[in-house]
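Please review this pair:
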Amino acid sequence: MKRWVLTTGLVLFASLGVVYAQDQPYEINAILPLTGPVAFLGKGEAAALDVVADLVNKRGGVRGRPIRFVVLDDQSSPQVAVQLTTGLIAKGVPAIIGSTLAAICNAQMPLAKDGPVIFCLSPVINPPAGGYVFTAGQTTEDYVGPAVRFMRERGWRKIALITSNDATGQDLDATIDRVLALPENHDVTLVAHEHFNVPDLSVAAQMAHVKSSGAQVLIAWSTGGEGTLLHGALDAGIELPVMISPAHLTYAEMKAFASYLPREAYFPGTAPYAPETLPSGPIKRAVGEYLDAFHAHGIQPDQSYLFTWNPALLIVDAFRKYGFDATPAQIRGFIASYRGAGTLGQYDFQAIPQRGLNGSSVIIVRWDTAKGTWVGASRFGGQPLTK
């Protein structure tokens, strides 16, 4: 009798333990800059992961089990990110979301030669096809191509360009050369090509050249010095439409730039910035789900949240298919074969390895001061809504 009671108790205890474990959230790991120079990005990305987890869990979790994203702080440092990535690899985790900056992701990349999957949130990196590293978002060329098409079809064929002397500017310089060399852009010319150093307090000389160049539109493209460029254009009396880097698609920066934003401020962006112009279909539904989820949390999402959403959902869907014992190879295979609609556009990782997106999903948007938000100015690919 005592043996029966003891055995029954152990079985009951074991059963309760299984139920208890099943109720515990499955932890998906992320490495993001919660402190340091780009903490403003990392904090937004971490908040986006919380919104994803809430949405997934309200819909029953993954195979009936809730999930939770565990975020480790890389302090905006490649060295710290390498240490954290190495630690997670030692624990055998199958997937990691992040980090955010290209320099950090490039430092992580060699560590993932044989897994785990690392889904970097910087669109700047170019991971090798077939590998375990994926990247979120379109390339610079994917943005610039539709931007030039938009300008060309608006009749703005004389372009002035000013960008920084850093890696961002060098990338843009090489990209604009390739885009303008395309046959369809044969009558589009750079009538001014200026540079500046991000710490510079003035770009008066460069803007004077722009003003006298006969340009019909200005591309002002910088990550760290956009305010200096826009302020300089205003001080020089330049009244041209201005195309601005998508890095500045944030409400905080629109507020900061408010007193010197040009009357026509355009950005190469993506579907969530122009939901009112989207045709009915899966991308519009994906964008609606994204916006509704953030609004339910009292968040007005912008670029600091956007790149996190689809990578997190793709990894969740991989666990949904293969279970929580999924291997890095299975998760990699799931993402590498994925085709479908997302908030950033139509994904096809088979045609576009490691990224899944190209310029066909880019929409040119305009900042509407009266509405306090962006509105669509083009269709997918840059074709203007109006001439």
Remarks:
- The chain has two domains: 26-138+284-356, 140-269+364-376.
